[in-house]
């Protein structure tokens, strides 16, 4: 069987579109202005076949436009679309998480400057209604008007023998995050854990993929320090998997992705599948990326990235 039925979720829908290491990396490269096929291949160390496959896919979901460099010219360039530019908040949240938990020399060299206040900053996520910082402990979930079941493709896109972590890219600023969420099942498991799921059978009930795949992903998340594993039963031993502080800190990235999915990946446009409530104010949560220095919302054209 190549189909999987799961509860509709904008996170799943978004991950089914871009929850792939190479797709996420390509979007980063184009963001930095690396936008011809050959330049991308050189920058990413990816094979021609995989790159071509992902570029076609990203065009098919309206995340890239392929246009001639000059009118009528042969040299083609790839450009971000409104849809992919809208992943900006996800990128800011990814950078914030990466900075908190890893020392990434390439990232340490980058300074983010908020032009509105003139200061360098870390991005954070605040509730648009009450202004409080958003974290995974202050939200609750209810089915939304678009709650339904989704039929999803199980098929995995063409695999590459090169790992993204080994990719030589100068522009891969959040490779540890991509290493986690660039596999959609891994990302799905993390997303489910924000709903309070902790046991294998609970995860499997919501995400009925092959048990060996699920076991493998849970093990990986423990190794990566996103989950901590503790026994909830002794004989036979059974484990529960709970988010660590590092895991919980991924929530703003997932919330930004959920908002992107609500906006861009709702095929029938019949309302959001999931209602996220901010418990602090009791209102529907809309998280916005804000500047740690002045607390104002960050907009792409008001942020300068300076590379040394
Ligand atoms: Zn609020
Ligand atoms: Zn600011």
Descriptive terms for the model:
308 residues, alpha+beta, 3-stranded antiparallel beta sheet, 13 helices, 21% strand, globular
Overall description:
This protein is α+β, with helices and mostly antiparallel strands and 308 residues long. The protein has one domain (3-306). The chain is 38% helix and 21% strand. The protein has 13 helices and 14 strands. The protein has helices at residues 10-18, 21-31, 37-44, 48-60, 82-85, 88-101, 105-108, 175-181, 184-193, 200-206, 211-223, 245-248, 251-264; strands spanning 3-7, 64-68, 76-80, 111-114, 119-120, 123-127, 139-143, 149-153, 227-233, 238-243, 274-278, 283-284, 287-291, 303-306. Helix 6 packs antiparallel against helix 13 and helix 9 packs across helix 11 (211-223). The radius of gyration is 20 Å and the shape is globular. The structure holds zinc ion (2 copies). Residues 114, 116-117, 119, 121, 291, 293-294, 296 line the site of one zinc ion.
Please specify the SSE layout and strand pairing.
Elements lengths: L2 E5 L2 H9 L2 H11 L5 H8 L3 H13 L3 E5 L7 E5 L1 H4 L2 H14 L3 H4 L2 E4 L4 E2 L2 E5 L11 E5 L5 E5 L21 H7 L2 H10 L6 H7 L4 H13 L3 E7 L4 E6 L1 H4 L2 H14 L9 E5 L4 E2 L2 E5 L11 E4 L2
Antiparallel strand pairs: 1-8, 2-3, 4-5, 4-14, 6-13, 7-11, 9-10, 11-12
Bound molecules: zinc ion (2 copies).
């Amino acid at each position: 069987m190549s189909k999987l039925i799961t509860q509709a979720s904008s996170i799943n829908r978004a991950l089914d579109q871009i929850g792939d290491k190479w797709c996420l990396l390509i979007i980063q490269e184009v963001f930095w202005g690396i936008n011809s096929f050959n330049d991308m291949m050189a920058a990413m160390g990816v094979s021609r076949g995989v790159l071509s496959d992902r570029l076609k896919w990203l065009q098919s979901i309206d995340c890239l436009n392929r246009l001639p460099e000059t009118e009528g010219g042969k040299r083609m360039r790839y450009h971000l679309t409104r849809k992919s530019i809208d992943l900006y908040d996800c990128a800011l949240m990814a950078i914030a998480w990466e900075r908190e938990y890893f020392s990434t020399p390439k990232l340490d060299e980058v300074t983010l400057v908020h032009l509105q206040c003139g200061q360098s900053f870390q991005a954070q996520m605040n509730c648009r209604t009450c202004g409080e910082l958003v974290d995974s402990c202050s939200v609750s979930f209810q089915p939304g008007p678009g709650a339904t079941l989704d039929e999803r493709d199980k098929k995995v896109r063409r695999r590459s023998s090169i790992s993204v972590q080994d990719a030589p890219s100068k522009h891969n600023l959040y490779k540890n995050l991509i290493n986690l969420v660039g596999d959609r099942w891994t990302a799905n498991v993390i997303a489910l854990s924000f709903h309070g799921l902790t046991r294998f059978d609970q995860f499997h009930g919501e995400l009925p993929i092959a048990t060996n795949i699920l076991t493998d992903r849970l093990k990986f998340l423990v190794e990566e320090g996103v989950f901590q594993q503790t026994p909830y039963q002794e004989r036979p031993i059974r484990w529960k998997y709970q988010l660590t502080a590092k895991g919980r800190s991924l929530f703003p990235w997932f919330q930004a992705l959920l908002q992107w999915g609500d906006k861009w990946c709702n095929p029938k446009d019949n309302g959001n599948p999931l209602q996220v409530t901010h418990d602090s104010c009791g209102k529907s949560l809309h998280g916005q990326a804000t500047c740690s220095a002045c607390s104002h919302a960050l907009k792409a054209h008001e942020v300068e990235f300076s590379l040394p």
